[in-house]
Amino acid sequence: MTRAPLPSLISTLKIIQINDISASYDSKSLVLDHVNLSIDRGTNYAIVGPSGSGKSTLLKLMNGMMIPSSGTIKIDYVAPNMKDKKFKKMMHTIGYIPQNLGLVKNITVLENVLIGSLPRLNKIQSFFKRFPEDEITEAKKIIKQVGLSGKEERKSYMLSGGEKRRVAIARAFMQKPTILLADEIVSELDRATAKEIMNLIADAQKRINLTAIMIHHDMKLALEYANRVAVIKGGHKILEIGVEGDTIVDFQTGDMTTEEIMSMYSDDSEK
Ligand SMILES: Nc1ncnc2c1ncn2[C@@H]1O[C@H](COP(=O)(O)OP(=O)(O)OP(=O)(O)O)[C@@H](O)[C@H]1O
Ligand SMILES: [Mg+2]
Q1: CATH match for 7-79+93-270 among 3.40.50.300, 3.60.15.10, 2.130.10.130, 3.40.50.150
Q2: What is the DSSP letter of 53?
Q3: Which residue from 98, 206, 216, 271 has the highest number of Cβ atoms inside 10 Å of its Cβ?
Q4: Contacts (Cβ under 8 Å, ≥6 apart) of 154
Q5: What is the pTM of this model?
């Protein structure tokens, strides 16, 4: 007897495959130039690089807000494009936190977090924002997990920078995502708060095998939490590194020492 295939149970190790993509906002100059990336399921993948190097653009391409001018991106075999029906169906599995967090200022913490459940509601519930009791309970549970208990009814403009980031994370968790795309959510925070927020994400990674792709300003913090760090400069991926024991390993060329890698990055960050 031949066994029937079970495609729905098969998942690839590589959740994101980016092959030779270039991107442009004005169809003249490229802001990303022939970039390749391959991200394993469940990893914490960091992207660092100087301002204007194309980091946010890379995340927008993964989220389908932009499409590449050449090359291909696949997220679980699907090319991200917000206008495409097939991708729209899987969009709720991607939690995206933009650089400006994208919170609604004049509504409460709880209401902001509940926005993450909208893709699960029916059209009427979603239109009138009538959230079922179980979603409210779930939102409160997540608000507690991110350390905002007691602040459920506070308007989000009345929160500190660190608290706002926690709300954005809670809203993304509320989506029950398999991928989290986070654009500099720990930049400009003191180190202790930044680490608390990174730990929240690390916990979720252990709990639900979340794949996190995070843009950072701080290379040290990136190396502390990420399995891999891609360094983007001038639209090119110039390095891909990771920590193995007490050594920084260069996965892109395989021939650089830890000192060379760190000095290369310091030179960049001073420009
Ligand atoms: N909407 C846009 N229209 C035109 N050009 C844009 C747009 N957004 C970004 N750019 C340009 O594309 C390039 C890459 O921008 P991107 O936002 O990806 O950089 P970044 O690495 O995220 O920088 P930062 O660290 O400052 O956030 C920059 O030169 C920027 O000016
Ligand atoms: Mg950016």
Answers
A1: 3.40.50.300
A2: S
A3: 216
A4: 108, 109
A5: 0.89
Q: Which ligand 1 atom minimizes the distance to the CA of 59?
A: 18
107-148, pLDDT tens digit by residue?
999 999 999 998 888 877 777 778 899 999 999 999 999 999
> How far is it, in rounded angstroms, from Cα 44 to Cα 55?
16
Q: Which of 55, 66, 271 to mutate to test the pocket of ligand 1 (most atoms within 8 A of CB)?
A: 55
Pocket of ligand 1 (CB under 6 A): 25, 31, 49, 51-57, 99
Collect residues with CB below 5 Å from ion ligand 2: 56
| Residue nearest ligand 1's atom 17 by CA | 56
Sequence letter at residue 118: L
DSSP class of 5: P
Q: If you take atom 29 of ligand 1, which residue's CA is the nearest one? A: 52
| Res 251: pLDDT | 81
Sequence ranges of the domains in the chain: 7-79+93-270
From ligand 2's centre to the CA of 245, what distance in Å? 30
Nearest to 186 by CA among 197, 172, 173: 197
